[in-house]
Amino acid sequence: MEVLVDVLVVLFAALTGASLQLGTGTLLLLYHEGLGRKVPKRVRRAASGYIFGVLIFTILLLATAVLLMLLWFGKALNEDGLIFLASLCIVMAGIVILFYYRRGKTTMLWIPNFMAKYFKKRAGKVETGAEGMALGMTATLGELPFSIILILVAANSLLGLPRAGIIIAIVAYALITIMPILITKILIKSGRTLADIQRWRVKNKMFFRIFTGVMYLILAIFLVAFKVIKGAA
Amino acid sequence: MKVVEKAKATYRRARAVEAATEKKSRQSPKRVKFSRRKLVSEIMFEARVLGRHAGAVEIFADKVANEVEVWAKKRTYITEDDITRVASEKLKKYDKDLAYIYKNRDTIV
Questions:
Q1: Nearest-CA neighbor of A133 among A54, A62, A187?
Q2: Do residues A205 and A101 touch, judged by C-beta distance below 8 A?
Q3: Integer Cα distance of A28 and A123 in angstroms
């Protein structure tokens, strides 16, 4: 039962991370700038590098969080730590529902203007797979204010799994998180235009906003119900 | 002497009008000069993003640029957003997807 709860927490954290939009938006920017400059082959290579960069950096971040938790605490967090994480999840739910997306018929995010301009500039200059990988890592870093809670919650739950299970779960978390980016690449490769994808994103913006907020709340409830209350009992 | 004073007064009035225009552009979105070449190249850029045939797009890109130029000449103060808005409205007649992506090119992230 404990292992099942830990696996579910990691799964929910991964699904919440997958619903965040900076990674997908930056990939679309990459395609937009690359295809506009008439370099489709380089864009495909850069997009593959981008996805690889996001995957690797997510695995690194999660593995680092698990290692640091093990070094500092020796085991999973105690009740105080779990309550702190749960309250952060509730705060993030409110922030995501109210502020994550900017207003209007747009998928612009609540990130500083200089950061948005930086991503656009970098996406325009990417030519190789390595540069795409670096952009992927930067996008994951840019998402960190929203994803750090998910990484900490997942890392805490991973410590409850057997050793081999930790590695499998870390890779599974990263794969689930990059699923929307992979699907976007497959859709573009299959012939969908950026206009179609962008229209779909704008149309389903409210759904993503509510889904992400609710997922943060579910994580908080799981932590409190299955780790704090059940642990105390 | 009267001619010189008159010239000075005209110069001062012209400087006052320029200063007032500059002040307005610092307060509100930046005033730009309409550039036909820039507009056509932006439309062609977005057409490449969507994989449209360049030759076909060139034809209506010129028409759109003409229409926007006529609109811009009637106005003393235009911004980048105004040009984008008007150009995307004119583009809708020819290619809806192109108009959409042109209008929303800066709102992906």
A1: A54
A2: yes
A3: 9
- Which pLDDT score, from 0 to 100, does residue A227 have? 82
Residue B109 lies in a domain: no
**Confidence band, pLDDT 50/70/90 cuts, at residue B26:** very low
Q: Between residues B7 and A81, which one has the greater pLDDT?
A: A81
Range of the domain at B20: 1-27
Taking the CA of residue B92 and the nearest CA in chain A, the distance in Å comes to: 13
- Residues B53, B65, single domain; the answer is yes
Angstrom distance (rounded) from CA A112 to CA A130: 26
The number of folded domains in chain B is: 2
**B72 and B36 in one domain?**
yes
CA B74 to chain centre: 12
pLDDT score for B25 = 44
Let me know whether B21 and B62 are in one domain: no
Rounded distance between C-alpha atoms, residue A38 and residue A27, angstroms: 17
**Boundaries of domain holding A24:** 2-226
Same domain, B54 and B74: yes
In angstroms, what separates the C-alpha of B84 from chain A's closest C-alpha? Answer: 15
In total, how many domains does chain A have? 1
Chain B residues with beta carbon closer than 8 angstroms to that of A195: 50, 97-98, 100-101
Instruction: For residue range B29-79, list pLDDT tens digits in order.
Output: 788 889 999 999 999 999 999 999 999 999 999 999 999 999 999 988 899
Region A124-138: what's the mean pLDDT?
93
Closest residue in chain B to residue A28, using alpha carbons only: B108
Report yes or no on B108 lying in a domain. no
Which residues of A sit within 8 Å Cβ distance of B?
22, 25-26, 28-29, 31-32, 35-38, 106-109, 111, 116, 119-120, 193-196, 198-199
Same domain? B97 vs B63: yes
Q: Beta strands of A91-215 (E only): which ranges?
A: none
Rounded CA-CA distance B90/A111 in Å is: 32
Mark whether B37 and B73 lie in a shared domain: yes
Q: Is residue B60 part of a domain?
A: yes
Residues in chain A: 233
